[in-house]
Write a structure and sequence with these properties.
two-stranded antiparallel sheet; 2 domains; mainly alpha; 5 helices; about 140 residues; 2 strands
Length: about 140
Protein backbone atom coordinates (compact mmCIF):
# COMPACT_ATOMS: atom_id res chain seq x y z
CA UNK A 1 0.00 0.00 0.00
CA UNK A 2 2.87 2.39 0.79
CA UNK A 3 4.41 1.69 -2.64
CA UNK A 4 1.08 2.45 -4.34
CA UNK A 5 0.77 5.70 -2.37
CA UNK A 6 4.36 6.67 -3.28
CA UNK A 7 3.64 5.96 -6.97
CA UNK A 8 0.51 8.11 -6.75
CA UNK A 9 2.40 11.03 -5.21
CA UNK A 10 5.29 10.71 -7.66
CA UNK A 11 2.96 10.92 -10.67
CA UNK A 12 3.41 14.17 -12.59
CA UNK A 13 -0.21 15.26 -12.39
CA UNK A 14 -0.24 15.28 -8.59
CA UNK A 15 2.98 17.27 -8.42
CA UNK A 16 1.72 19.73 -11.04
CA UNK A 17 -1.51 20.16 -9.09
CA UNK A 18 0.39 20.78 -5.84
CA UNK A 19 2.60 23.39 -7.49
CA UNK A 20 -0.51 24.99 -9.03
CA UNK A 21 -2.23 25.24 -5.66
CA UNK A 22 0.82 26.78 -3.99
CA UNK A 23 1.38 29.29 -6.79
CA UNK A 24 -2.37 29.99 -6.88
CA UNK A 25 -2.39 30.83 -3.18
CA UNK A 26 0.51 33.24 -3.62
CA UNK A 27 -1.12 34.71 -6.72
CA UNK A 28 -4.37 35.21 -4.78
CA UNK A 29 -2.51 37.34 -2.24
CA UNK A 30 -0.99 39.45 -5.02
CA UNK A 31 -4.31 39.96 -6.83
CA UNK A 32 -6.15 40.72 -3.56
CA UNK A 33 -3.54 43.33 -2.68
CA UNK A 34 -3.73 44.80 -6.19
CA UNK A 35 -7.50 45.17 -5.88
CA UNK A 36 -7.63 46.36 -2.26
CA UNK A 37 -4.57 48.64 -2.28
CA UNK A 38 -4.43 50.00 -5.83
CA UNK A 39 -7.66 49.59 -7.79
CA UNK A 40 -10.32 50.17 -5.09
CA UNK A 41 -8.81 53.53 -4.01
CA UNK A 42 -8.85 54.69 -7.64
CA UNK A 43 -12.47 53.60 -8.00
CA UNK A 44 -13.18 55.38 -4.71
CA UNK A 45 -11.95 58.64 -6.28
CA UNK A 46 -14.53 58.34 -9.06
CA UNK A 47 -17.39 57.23 -6.79
CA UNK A 48 -16.71 59.78 -4.08
CA UNK A 49 -15.29 57.22 -1.67
CA UNK A 50 -18.51 55.22 -1.47
CA UNK A 51 -18.03 51.96 0.41
CA UNK A 52 -21.04 49.68 0.49
CA UNK A 53 -19.57 47.39 3.16
CA UNK A 54 -21.43 49.03 6.06
CA UNK A 55 -24.83 49.05 4.34
CA UNK A 56 -27.18 46.65 6.07
CA UNK A 57 -30.75 46.20 7.23
CA UNK A 58 -31.55 45.13 10.78
CA UNK A 59 -33.79 42.06 10.78
CA UNK A 60 -34.05 41.75 14.55
CA UNK A 61 -32.36 43.25 17.57
CA UNK A 62 -31.55 46.73 18.83
CA UNK A 63 -28.84 48.67 17.03
CA UNK A 64 -27.93 52.32 17.43
CA UNK A 65 -28.72 54.29 14.31
CA UNK A 66 -25.65 54.85 12.13
CA UNK A 67 -23.73 52.02 13.77
CA UNK A 68 -21.28 50.13 11.62
CA UNK A 69 -21.98 46.61 10.45
CA UNK A 70 -19.35 45.29 12.85
CA UNK A 71 -20.97 47.12 15.77
CA UNK A 72 -24.39 45.76 14.81
CA UNK A 73 -23.03 42.23 14.72
CA UNK A 74 -21.26 42.70 18.06
CA UNK A 75 -24.56 43.91 19.55
CA UNK A 76 -26.02 40.53 18.57
CA UNK A 77 -28.46 41.91 16.02
CA UNK A 78 -29.54 39.84 13.06
CA UNK A 79 -28.53 41.87 10.02
CA UNK A 80 -29.05 41.56 6.28
CA UNK A 81 -25.59 42.70 5.09
CA UNK A 82 -26.38 43.55 1.48
CA UNK A 83 -23.51 46.05 1.30
CA UNK A 84 -20.89 43.36 1.93
CA UNK A 85 -22.46 41.29 -0.82
CA UNK A 86 -22.37 44.22 -3.26
CA UNK A 87 -18.69 44.84 -2.43
CA UNK A 88 -17.94 41.13 -2.90
CA UNK A 89 -19.52 41.27 -6.37
CA UNK A 90 -17.58 44.42 -7.27
CA UNK A 91 -14.32 42.86 -6.03
CA UNK A 92 -15.04 39.66 -7.97
CA UNK A 93 -15.58 41.57 -11.21
CA UNK A 94 -12.38 43.55 -10.67
CA UNK A 95 -10.35 40.45 -9.76
CA UNK A 96 -11.77 38.50 -12.71
CA UNK A 97 -10.85 41.35 -15.07
CA UNK A 98 -7.32 41.63 -13.65
CA UNK A 99 -6.79 37.86 -13.93
CA UNK A 100 -8.16 37.94 -17.49
CA UNK A 101 -5.71 40.69 -18.44
CA UNK A 102 -2.78 38.83 -16.84
CA UNK A 103 -3.66 35.53 -18.55
CA UNK A 104 -4.09 37.39 -21.83
CA UNK A 105 -0.59 38.88 -21.52
CA UNK A 106 0.93 35.52 -20.55
CA UNK A 107 -0.71 33.90 -23.59
CA UNK A 108 0.71 36.64 -25.85
CA UNK A 109 4.19 36.13 -24.40
CA UNK A 110 3.86 32.36 -24.85
CA UNK A 111 2.75 32.76 -28.46
CA UNK A 112 5.64 35.12 -29.18
CA UNK A 113 8.09 32.68 -27.63
CA UNK A 114 6.74 29.77 -29.69
CA UNK A 115 6.88 31.57 -33.06
CA UNK A 116 10.68 31.57 -33.49
CA UNK A 117 10.80 27.85 -32.73
CA UNK A 118 8.26 27.13 -35.44
CA UNK A 119 10.10 29.29 -37.96
CA UNK A 120 13.46 27.70 -37.20
CA UNK A 121 12.16 24.18 -37.91
CA UNK A 122 14.60 22.36 -40.20
CA UNK A 123 13.57 22.36 -43.83
CA UNK A 124 13.81 19.30 -46.06
CA UNK A 125 17.21 19.15 -47.72
CA UNK A 126 17.16 19.80 -51.47
CA UNK A 127 16.67 16.71 -53.60
CA UNK A 128 19.87 15.67 -55.41
CA UNK A 129 19.93 16.12 -59.19
CA UNK A 130 20.29 12.36 -59.75
CA UNK A 131 17.10 11.65 -57.82
CA UNK A 132 15.24 14.34 -59.77
CA UNK A 133 16.41 12.83 -63.08
CA UNK A 134 15.42 9.31 -62.01
CA UNK A 135 11.99 10.59 -60.95
CA UNK A 136 11.51 12.25 -64.36
CA UNK A 137 12.56 9.04 -66.17
CA UNK A 138 10.16 6.98 -64.07
CA UNK A 139 7.27 9.38 -64.79
CA UNK A 140 8.13 9.34 -68.52
CA UNK A 141 8.11 5.51 -68.57
CA UNK A 142 4.74 5.42 -66.78
CA UNK A 143 3.13 7.73 -69.32
CA UNK A 144 4.54 5.82 -72.32
Amino acid sequence: MFQEFRDFIARGNVMDMAVGIIVGAAFTAIVSSLVADLINPIIGLFTGGIDFTNNYAVLSGDVAEGASLEAAREAGASVFAYGSFIMAIINFVIIAFVVFMLVRQVNKIKAAAEKPEEESAPEDPPTPVEVQLLTEIRDALKSA
